[in-house]
Write a structure and sequence with these properties.
Elements lengths: L2 E18 L2 E15 L2 E7 L9 H9 L2 H5 L4 H7 L4 H18 L3 H4 L8 E2 L2 E3 L4 H9 L6 E5 L5 H11 L4 E5 L6 H6 L1 H6 L2 E5 L19 E3 L18 E4 L1 H4 L2 H13 L3 E4 L6 H11 L4 E2 L16 E3 L2 E3 L14
Parallel strand pairs: 5-6, 6-7, 7-8, 8-9, 9-10, 10-11, 11-12
Antiparallel strand pairs: 1-2, 2-3, 4-14, 13-14
Helix pairs in contact: 1-4, 6-7, 11-12
Length: 333
């Protein structure tokens, strides 16, 4: 067996800035991994995230360090033993899944015992801005039934009220990205209840989860930054009711599927999210998201341009990528 690795950074400009409590993005900077074996090509993508101490340079170095092992036939199980969760492992793991599908002539969905992917109801995100601007952005979201609202400590009630006024019937997910305190969360409970917020995502900084012990919230609280892999779940009981699975946190589809199974076993609700990315990241996430209670895979929708055949939002639903990843292919000659 001869398997070759190529890895490169890619820069995907956004059509409009994406703002959260930690800053503003104007492009998705990703690491693209390609594995070629017997004329078949498997691809994966990882998004380095500064919140977790990652940069393009560190992720590229982590991938390149495994070139020899990958050439010698490293499996997904070998990968998990050699490299911790994060963007580098995600890119390689997903490339291995894709390569396996193409070598076997069997789609990933079939390997998992599932039917072909269907469209999913997915959130559209209103990025952080002034209340007026957030209301105007919401008004442009025709047909959506699930909206994720980015907020911080500055006027969260006014921002949420503006979104609700523009979308009176949509389900709302509020995402402070760790910017609140337990006091802010408690003070906002009447507002959140009045606005019929469906989910509160990671309101407190990861590491301050103990403050949520015994807290009675008007809506379920979802662990994002506090939950990366299945081993994290035991420490989240009685603090969170839902966990957000992202492949860049779990380190790929392999661990994400295990996290899904373990979360359900322990009684957690499941959300599947993403970083701002291309559809190469979203395609494998669909295989977890089809089992989720909340889906937030609008990362590619922010791009000025995406892969041909990439994910497309049509009203309330996100159409899965076509032929991009995890499907059989003819070998290259």
């Amino acid at each position: 067996m001869l398997r070759t690795l190529s890895v490169r950074p890619e820069h995907w400009p956004l059509s409009t800035p994406f703002r959260i409590s930690r800053g503003v993005k104007t492009a998705a900077d990703v690491v693209a991994v390609t594995l070629v074996q017997d004329g078949h090509t498997g691809r994966g993508e990882g998004v380095p995230y500064a919140r977790y101490g990652e940069t393009l340079e560190t992720v590229l170095a982590q991938v390149n360090a495994l070139a020899g092992a990958l050439a010698q036939g490293m499996t997904r199980q070998d990968l998990a033993a050699q490299l911790g969760p994060g963007a580098a492992r995600n890119a390689i793991d997903c490339a291995l899944w894709d390569l396996e599908a193409r070598l076997a002539g069997r789609a990933v969905a079939e390997t998992l015992g599932q039917p072909p992917l269907d469209p999913l109801v997915s959130a559209l995100t209103v990025s952080l801005d002034t209340p007026q601007a957030m209301g105007e952005a919401t008004a442009r979201m025709t047909g959506t039934t699930l909206i994720k609202v980015k907020v911080d400590r500055n006027e969260p009630a006014a921002c949420l009220a503006a979104v609700r006024a523009a979308a009176p019937d949509a389900a709302l997910i509020v995402d402070p990205n760790e910017s609140w305190t337990i006091e802010i969360l408690a003070a906002l409970q009447p507002v959140l209840a009045d606005l019929k917020v469906a989910l509160i995502e990671q309101p407190l900084p990861a590491g301050e989860d103990n403050d949520l012990a015994g807290f009675q919230s008007c809506a379920p609280i979802c662990a994002d930054e506090s939950c990366h892999v299945a081993e994290d779940l035991a420490g989240l009981k009685d603090r969170y009711q839902v966990v957000n699975i992202k492949l860049d946190k779990s380190g790929g589809l392999t661990e994400a599927l295990d996290l899904l199974t373990q979360a359900r076993t322990l009684g957690f609700g499941v959300m599947v999210g993403c970083m701002v990315s291309s559809s190469m990241s979203i395609a494998p996430a669909f295989h977890v998201a089809r089992h989720a209670d909340f889906v937030d895979l609008d990362g590619p929708i922010w791009l000025a341009n995406d892969y041909p055949g990439g994910a497309v939002q049509r009203g309330a639903v996100l159409m899965p990528p076509k032929g991009l990843w995890g499907v059989p292919s003819s070998p290259q000659v």
